[in-house]
Every structure is written in structure tokens, then in C-alpha cells.
Amino acid sequence: MIPKELIKKIKQIQIFTSRAVDASFAGQYESVFKGRGMQFDEVREYTPGDDIRSIDWNVTARTGKAYIKRFVEEREMTVMFAVDLSASGEFGTVDKMKNELAAEFCAVLAFAAAKNNDKVGLLIFTDKVELYIPPKKGISHMLRLIRELLYFKMPKGNTDIPQALDYLARVVRKKATVFLVSDFLETDFKKPLSLLNKRHDVIAVSVRDKAEIALPSVGLIEFTDAETGETIIVDTSSRRFRKQFASRSSQRFDELTNMLRSINIDCINISTDRAYIQDLVRFFHMRHKRY
């Protein structure tokens, strides 16, 4: 039995995401992600003006006449969400937790995909693969994905991004657009990510909270690592400590950005303290200019 509070939340997200998709980027989604692949359509006789690189030499040799291969754009796309819902996502100092933000972000894109008749699948992972839902079409399927994202209970444990990427590489055989959604506290996953990106179009989505970027000065605070259970007390009134914290946070973010850039993976940065719709719109504009 699904709790009434969860049903209410699903309905709220459905209403919000539907409006967001209609208002902001339904058309942009299609222009950026549609037609990226090509599929074989037919072989026809060569006519002057055709690209000679399209000549099918096997058919040409058999018939004695020049024939070319004709391709058309693939109109159906597969979208996969690989979402890190480990315990570190149960953190937020503004309107919502990082995991809630991740769920809503995925919901927006899932509805955009549904409106364009695309297939959508979901992989939830922590330090292991928690749930895999194969790609399917339809609004009811999208609502199931949202329900699973919201209903998932975060265990205490570490994050294992390489394991999730290896699993995706095994189960998703057709070329897909993969959104890897995480706070990326783990950093050692460059090789499996690069390998996955050679077969699929991988997009990283970095989920953060402003308190992870710069600590406010509020005196003594007890911090508990959600993934290890370790607890420490820090003095946030210390300007030196806040400066060191901000520097370390900035360095970690720069390292992630540089690593992703080195293997040609785009990144969308979203945070619990601001609306992510504009982040998506800017990303779509950037991609549209590139392609």
C-alpha cells in the first residue's frame, strides 16, 4: 500500500513536471535529442549529385550499376536514468533534499520523453544496483519511475558508481541517452564512464546543496557522514575553517568538471537552492548550438 503522502507527492510532481515541460522545453528536448542516430532505410540506384561515399559496393558489383545506401533519422530514442540514491543524498538545507531534487529532475525529463514517444528506463544504485526498470513508453510507466524514485529508502552505505556503470553497459544494448545523476562524492570512475560513453550518449547531472559549497557561520555544528556514520564537531564561526572548506569543495568540483571534459561528457549542475528548469534550458541551448 502506497502512503497517502506519497500519492500526493506523485500527483504534485506530475502536475509540476507536465507544466514545466509544456512551458519551457518540450520542443527543445526534441530538437536536441531527436534524430541523433541514423538507421538503414533502403538501397536505391545512384543518381548524379548523390554522395559517392554512400555507394553500396557489394550491390553495385552484383548488378553492374551503381547503388547507394539510404539512411533516415531514428525517431525513437531510449533514455536511461542512472540515479545515485545513496544516503549522502538525504541532505538539504533549503527547500528539498538532494535525492528529492534528483527525483524531480528525472521526472521532468521523463515527461518530456513521454511526450516525444521515447522509451525511458531507470537504474537506482547505492553501493550496489538497487533497482533496474527496462525502458518502456507511456505515461503510466513514467509515473511508476517517479514512484520508485520517491519511495526508495536510502540505506546507510557507500556509493559505487563504477559498478552501476558496468551494469548499465551489460543490460542496455541499444544506443541510449544516459543521465548519470549523483552528488559525485566518489571520484574514481573515469574509465568505466569513458567506456560507457563510447557506446551511449552519457550526460552527468551533478546534484549539490549550497552548504556543501560554502558553510554559513553558525557556530558549533555536529556533522554525521550519512554513508559511514562517522560524526565530527566543527566550529563554523572560524573564518579559516570556512575558507578551507570552500577551497576543498571548489577543488573537488573542478576535478570532476575537468575529468568529465577530458572524456567528452557534458554536465548539468543543479542545486537544492535554485530552480533547475533554467539549468536544463541553458543545457539544451548549448547542445542545440553544438549539433
Task: Describe this structure as you would to a colleague.
- With 291 residues, the protein is of the alpha/beta class.
- The protein has two domains: 36 residues, no CATH class; 216 residues, von Willebrand factor, type A domain (Rossmann fold), CATH 3.40.50.410.
- 44% of the residues lie in helices and 23% in strands.
- Strands 5-4-3-6-7-10 form a six-stranded mixed β-sheet, sandwiched between helices. It has a two-stranded antiparallel ribbon with strand order 1-2. It has a two-stranded antiparallel sheet with strand order 8-9.
- Strand 4 and strand 5 form a beta hairpin.
- It is elongated, with a radius of gyration of 22 Å.
- The mean pLDDT is 80.
Task: Give the topology.
Blueprint lengths: L3 H30 L4 E8 L11 H7 L3 E7 L4 E7 L13 H18 L3 E7 L3 E8 L2 H13 L9 H11 L5 E6 L7 H10 L1 E8 L11 E5 L6 E5 L3 H24 L3 E6 L5 H14 L1
Parallel strand pairs: 3-4, 3-6, 6-7, 7-10
Antiparallel strand pairs: 1-2, 4-5, 8-9
Can I get a quick summary?
The chain has 291 residues and is of the alpha/beta class. It is 44% helix and 23% strand. α1 crosses α4 (139-151) and α1 runs parallel beside α8.
Quick tags:
291 residues; alpha/beta; 2 domains; six-stranded mixed sheet; two-stranded antiparallel ribbon
Strand content: 15-25%
Q: Write down the Rg.
A: 22 Å
Widest sheet, order of strands: 5-4-3-6-7-10
Mean pLDDT: 80
How many beta strands in the DSSP annotation?
10
CATH topology of the largest domain: Rossmann fold
Oligomer: single chain
Total domain count? 2
How do the helices and strands follow one another from N- to C-terminus?
A: HEHEEHEEHHEHEEEHEH
CATH architecture of the largest domain: 3-Layer(aba) Sandwich
Helical segment count: 8
How far is the first residue's CA from the last residue's CA?
46 Å
Q: What percent of the residues sit in helical stretches (DSSP H or I)?
A: 40-55%
Mass-distribution shape: elongated
Per CATH, the class of the largest domain reads Alpha Beta
Low confidence ranges: none
Alpha-beta content class: alpha/beta
* CATH H-level homologous superfamily name of the largest domain: von Willebrand factor, type A domain
